[in-house]
């Protein structure tokens, strides 16, 4: 079982650290508000990650197989949500002052995970590779895989938040901060378009 978990960690590393909706969201929030202010959303995202991953590992993936339109709906809703996040960042980059801005909340993190089709694909792929119907201690293995996946992503998103915060430390003037918000907003918009066409 320990060999499976080590192999899983190696498998997950490039998936967690490559750009995607979650990574860009947390990098943008880190740039705008810093690590501590972004932790609530990170905890929300990863509580939802753990619950969704456990549900898929325990059989929810069968529901997605039986009703593929659920996945299509998630893809469209997720893309729309990421576009909305991008619009908020782009708009804040256009405004002269953004005193109403607030860090992402716990519930923002939950919604981002629930509407992120990339997460469902990775979770289903992960279980197809590391869990079989003949696996011993299937429940325990499912919960271990779920926990390793969640912790790996939490660390990756924390790293992306810190990267965003470090980038922003070089853009503290109001004009450069607005340009940075527009850059991250544009990147999120590109991710949303990628979500629609992939």
Question: Can you walk through the features of this model?
Answer:
Helix 3 (35-66) packs across helix 6. The chain has one domain (38-197). It has helices spanning 2-17, 21-33, 35-66, 68-94, 106-114, 117-130, 138-168, 174-197. Helix content is 84%, strand content 0%. The longest helix has 32 residues, at 35-66. The mean pLDDT is 81. The chain is an all-alpha fold.
Topology:
Elements: H1 2-17, H2 21-33, H3 35-66, H4 68-94, H5 106-114, H6 117-130, H7 138-168, H8 174-197
Helix pairs in contact: 1-7, 2-3, 2-7, 2-8, 3-4, 3-5, 3-6, 3-7, 4-8
Keywords:
single chain, 198 residues, mainly alpha
What is shown here, in short?
One of its GO terms (cellular component) is plasma membrane. The protein has 198 residues and is mainly alpha-helical. It has helices at 2-17, 21-33, 35-66, 68-94, 106-114, 117-130, 138-168, 174-197.
What is the CA–CA distance across the termini? 33 Å
pLDDT averaged over residues:
81
Provide the succession of SSEs. Answer: HHHHHHHH
How big a fraction of the residues is strand?
Answer: under 5%
